[in-house]
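Can anyone check this?
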Amino acid sequence: MVGIVYYNMGNLQSVRNAFEKIGVKAEVVTEGEELKKYDRLLLPGVGAFGDAMEHLREHNLVEAIREFVQMGRPLLGICLGMQLLFEESSEFGTHRGLGLIPGKVVRFDQMQMETPHKIPHMGWNKMFFTRQTPLFAGLTNPYLYFVHSYHGVTSPDYTIGETYYGYKFTSAVNRQNIYGFQPHPEKSHRQGLKILENFSKLK
């Protein structure tokens, strides 16, 4: 059973529909005390980092998510959900994150880009795997759908996927049973569904 954390950030219907397509039962969870009944947890979201963290705190989800991870159960953050895994973000000020992945979230820096690119990064782009994990089974450097203006910065020890957009940035992370994907698997057709299917099989 997959629990999809709802924290007032974006429409979850596309995520639920994606799990239905691959025959995986998924339910939306809104309160921290409900998390323990799920085998794995998905943290989706589109929106502002600070607002998201405030909602998680108000609904007792911050400590509940950390406890879920400590039990060894798989957690996957996608888009904003991946960014929340980091220690902090500089989006509209400095905000503390869940602290599950060492590093921070920063805005795309056009000064670093080899050629100018529009922000946000929106559309299909390729993810290059930097190391293999069970989440990548059956995939080879897929094209996935991105919509974001900020990205995570972390150690190569936690980076499992990179994408080029003016410069190379971390687009997927992993630390033990914690995974993060900057693109949207639920919007990435067959290859995205394969990622969610692999997640549903993690132990």
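Reply from J.R.: I decoded it. Residues 2-200 form a domain with the Rossmann fold fold (CATH 3.40.50.880).
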